[in-house]
Design goal:
Keywords: Membrane, Transmembrane, Transmembrane helix. The protein is an alpha+beta fold and 173 residues long. It is built from 1 helix and 10 strands. Strand 7 and strand 8 form a beta hairpin.
Length: 173
């Protein structure tokens, strides 16, 4: 009643099992590498500068003074209101210091909405220190959601940045 497998059939399974184990281990290592790179990549030591209170990104650009003649400015130039789930043009201007690897990270204030990360590209043929990209805010169940834009960049003296808060009304279908 109990059948025994021949040595040949057991031997045929071993290479498949080894292959499956190898593929699984490689997949886990790649996932671990990606997770560590993703988690640690944006959290190196950053010098944060407080944004000017009362600035409203719905009305126009918001800026912050860094050191002496240095300035960081964020603009989201949309027609009408800034809304969730819509493509948002992002413009960052850095004056007085060389900037590379400019990024904007949106995160919910008072509610965990995850991090929405967007890397901006230098404007080709334009003034130095101008960067552009496209971002998007997630949707929230609240009627009004406060989002924080963390803008950071790499400078010769390290990573610098500032935060800008904006209130967004929920879009109705």
């Amino acid at each position: 009643m109990h059948s025994r497998q021949s040595p040949a059939s057991r031997g045929a399974r071993r290479p498949r099992l080894r292959l499956l184990i190898t593929v699984t281990v490689v997949t886990l290592l790649i996932a671990l590498w990606y997770l560590l790179r993703y988690e640690l990549g944006d959290h190196q030591e950053t010098t944060w500068y407080p944004a000017a209170p009362g600035c409203d990104l719905h009305q126009g650009p918001c800026g912050v003074g860094l050191e002496e003649d240095e300035r960081l400015t964020l603009a989201i130039p949309v027609e009408g209101d800034i809304r969730p789930l819509e493509s948002l043009p992002l413009e960052v201007r850095v004056d007085g210091v060389e900037a590379q690897n400019v990024r904007v990270v949106f995160e919910g204030v008072g509610m965990d909405m995850g991090e929405h990360r967007f890397h901006l590209d230098a404007v080709q043929g334009g003034e130095p220190g101008r960067f552009q990209g496209v971002g998007q805010l997630g949707i929230c169940t609240r009627e009004r959601m406060t989002w924080r834009a963390r803008v950071s960049f790499d400078a010769p003296r390290g990573r610098l940045g500032s935060t800008f808060d904006l209130d967004v009304e929920r879009s109705l279908p």
